[in-house]
């Protein structure tokens, strides 16, 4: 990380504030990746909630599975949108397209596991409280 920040020819503030200096293509790719992340999280989260609450499956496995699959979907889709200009021009190789996706997945794997465990635990807690309220009525 330090080599990336300090070994670059640009000034330090430009590197840290790259989002404000990026083009429309970069912002579209980021927005599409975030959108896919939320949509896949919504869909997979509903399935995880059903598996954890109704079928009494493992909260850690299903929460982590949901977070990791959402991360993979967002990384691949966002990277493909970002690289589409190179693919159309015929300048992209498979390595050039997939390397950013793999890098995003590797960097995001540990936070996804932690967030997934937290998600599974929260799904189980909210499901138990919902069932208790439902049984009282």
3D structure, described in words:
It is a single chain. The chain has 137 residues and is an all-alpha fold. The protein has 5 helices and no strands. The chain has helices at 2-6, 12-16, 24-54, 59-89, 94-136. Helix 4 packs antiparallel against helix 5 (94-136). The longest helix is centred in the C-terminal third of the chain and has 43 residues, at 94-136. The chain starts with a helix and ends with a helix.
Question: What layout of secondary structure does this protein have?
Answer:
Blueprint (H helix, E strand, L loop, with lengths): L1 H5 L5 H5 L7 H31 L4 H31 L4 H43 L1
Helix pairs in contact: 3-4, 3-5, 4-5
Task: Give keywords.
84% helix
Largest sheet properties: none
By helix and strand content, what is the structural category?
A: mainly alpha
Percent of residues in beta strands?
Answer: under 5%
C-alpha termini separation: 56 Å
**Total number of helical segments?**
5
Strand segment tally: 0
Rg over CA atoms, rounded to whole Å, is 19 Å
Envelope shape: elongated
State the order of secondary-structure elements, H for helix, E for strand: HHHHH
Q: Could you list the spans in which at least 5 consecutive residues all have pLDDT below 50?
A: 1-5
Helix content: over 70%
Concise overview:
With 137 residues, the protein is an all-alpha fold.
